[in-house]
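Entry, Tuesday afternoon. Goal for today is a structural model of the target with zinc ion bound, before we commit to ordering more compound. Inputs were pasted exactly as handed over by J.K., no edits. I checked the ligand SMILES twice against the vendor sheet because last time a stereocentre got dropped in transcription.
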Amino acid sequence: MSPTEVLSEAFELGFTYTRSTGPVVGRFLTGLRDRRIEGVRASDGRVIVPPMEYDSDTAAALDDFVEVGQQGEIVSWCWVSEPRRAHPLQQPFAWAMIKLDGADVAMIHCVSAASESQLATGARVKVRWAEETRGHIKDIACFELAEVTQ
Amino acid sequence: MSEAREPVTGIEAPVYLQYQFTAGRAPSRFLSALKQGRLTGQRCPGCSQVYIPPRGACPACGIATEEEVTLSNKATVQSFTIVYIPIPGNPIKPPYIVANLVPDGANISFIHLLSECVNEEVHIGQRVQAVWKPEAEWDYKMDNIIYYKPLDEPDVPVELIGKLGVDGREVQP
Ligand SMILES: [Zn+2]
């Protein structure tokens, strides 16, 4: 190479973390593996999904697990028109806050839709499970719009 | 999903950072010399310190370093650590030694492996020599040098580490 040529190459740095889930998140993920979604009932009666280990008001340990529905509604959302490599979907999709039936708080996940115009706050969505579940948040492949029956 | 399975207690959560690494002019020259089997540094025109790997400027004087200096394959151990903990993805089996080494002719250390040694006998001031890969395998990479191995030479006194010329003798001011 000439003395002025500058070298450049692709580089990857990987942090191969594993994480301990603890009993509560572990139970949530175990539920996902069995295609169930579980939350936990807080001291004020609200059902929190994903479950929390400790009550946000009293700090007491929580263990009253409650199965919630596999459908819910979009509370808020944001369209991703150019997915990045690490994103869960490789076509345009939405990140959304989704309040599942039986839950009192929304949880974040992705929504697959043909276009941004199909989405709306309040739209009904349902879980699409991954073909193979293994105890990970990606066991929910995504949410998709539920058929509207009127 | 009828078979009983253990509850989930952990998940894999890797993070991968992908980017384009551009070496810059001074490191490009350094890497090109490495591909030719030479270890090089750059000398500061202000304070005469020789830096490896060169970054193109002297951090002390804040001026550009242009003069390229070929360094010796011999070096001195400035400090070291014995690694006992396996790191996932690392092909090197512990225990092994990672050392700060100052090659003769440079005034600053770089990090490399020490091998062909008794780990417990490695010490500061020890003389070592680069072990290169076969020439056919040389690339723009620091690991053209596989590791350093002990050299049967007298130790360098601590106060002289980083002050030897390329001939291994103390540089007279
Ligand atoms: Zn300088």
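Chain A touches chain B at residues 1, 3-21, 26-27, 29-30, 33-35, 85-86, 133, 135-136 (CB under 8 Å).
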